[in-house]
Structure formats: structure tokens, C-alpha cells
Amino acid sequence: MAIRVLLVDDQPLLRTGFRMILEAEQDIAVVGEAGDGLQALDQVRALQPDVVLMDIRMPRMDGVEATRQISGPGRDGPAKVLVLTTFDLDEYVVEALRAGASGFLLKDAPANELVQAIRVVASGEAMLAPSITRRLLDKYATHLPSGDEPVPDTLHTLTDREVEVLKLVARGLSNAEIAADLFVSETTVKTHVGHVLNKLGLRDRVQAAVYAYESGLVRPGAQ
């Protein structure tokens, strides 16, 4: 079945451009558009999209709050949120990820990257390259705890190896790099990451990275 996509941006011209790109793909169907966060919430309820391509700065309700109401804590709907941003708005990306977004994409990304991002997010994965995860979290370390705060109780549900894997995820390593670092197979790493997500109630490895920083398990800038 085609991936159902909702386009949310306050600029009609951009929505038209995204629609043209996505509708050229056989496995993607644009089911609706919205010009602000409030419209997006209505459209999500009415259309039940698989992926919401979400702008950040919009009138009435911004993309962060809309994301929180679509994919935030306690929300179990099927829609995944892929945030649109530009480098000069990166300060909003961490907040969007905290709100439940499954990743972000630059507005000037090539068409093939947009299409691939939609597919990746629809499959339940996170659309953030490990290196970008690390760069964003380190760059906006002022938004995060210093690492001196008490470790949350939920962290104690993890085994020592799962904590080790979580640290490496937060520091931007891919599954292959983690496997090489720990001298295990990629399949084993994927299993550990899955256990971490299930035990901590997290959606994907991006939220796991944010959790690791917010809990103080990993300090911003640490190697």
C-alpha cells in the first residue's frame, strides 16, 4: 500500500513543490495539505496519514506543538512526523525531537532525499544520520542537563550492555560502528537497541539519543 503523506507548511508554493515530487513516486500518496498546526491536527484526525511532513514556523500553532499533539507522550496514533527545517532554525530541532518527531529534513534537500526520508520514517526508523544526531545535540547542549542530575529510575531497567549501546547511539555511532566497537554482530546491536527502546518506552534511536543526554548518561561534548 502507498505511504499516506500529509504536507504541513504555511507556504503554498512549497507544498505544491513537495506534492509534485512525492506524487511522482508509485509508493507515496499525498492525502492532504495544511497551512498551520491547527489545520494539521484536523487533517491528521480526518485523513489518518502515515507520515506528516511538518514545517516548524507557522501561524496559530507552530510545528513543535503540533508534533507534540500528534506524536508526543501518550499519543499512540500511527502518524510519524518528519520535521522540515533550515540550518538557521536548528535550535527548534531538539525541541521537535523531544515532542515526538521521528527526524528532520532540510528544506533545500534534493528530491531523492525527501522521498527517501518519507520512506524511512514510514518504516518506523529515524531520519537522522548518526553524525547529525551528535552534531545537533552537542551544538544545543545548553538546552540539555549538565550531566550532574540524578539518573532516572528507568535507566536502571537496562542491562550493562544495553547501557553501553545506548551511550554509543547517543554519541552518533551507526549500528555497524557499534558492532565493530563492541566486537559483536550488527544483528546483536539491533537486538540491544530494540530492547533499549522497549524498556524506556521510546519510539526510535533519535529519541534514545535525546534521552541519553537528558538523563545525564552522556554529557554534551563528551567523547
TrEMBL record:
Which keywords describe this protein according to UniProt?
DNA-binding, Phosphoprotein, Transcription, Transcription regulation
User: Which GO biological process annotations does it have?
Assistant: phosphorelay signal transduction system; regulation of DNA-templated transcription
PTM annotation (4-aspartylphosphate): residues: D55
InterPro entries cross-referenced by the UniProt entry:
CheY-like_superfamily (IPR011006), NreC/VraR/RcsB-like_REC (IPR058245), Sig_transdc_resp-reg_C-effctor (IPR016032), Sig_transdc_resp-reg_receiver (IPR001789), Tscrpt_reg_LuxR_C (IPR000792), WalR-like (IPR039420)
According to the entry, every stretch annotated as the HTH luxR-type domain falls at: 151-216
Q: Does the keyword Transcription apply?
A: yes
**CDD domains (UniProt xref):** LuxR_C_like, REC_NarL-like
- MF GO annotations: DNA binding
Please name one Pfam family that this protein belongs to.
Answer: Response_reg
Which SMART domains does the record associate with it?
A: HTH_LUXR (SM00421), REC (SM00448)
**Response regulatory domain sequence ranges:** 4-122
Q: Coiled coil: which residue ranges? A: none
| Record protein name field | DNA-binding response regulator
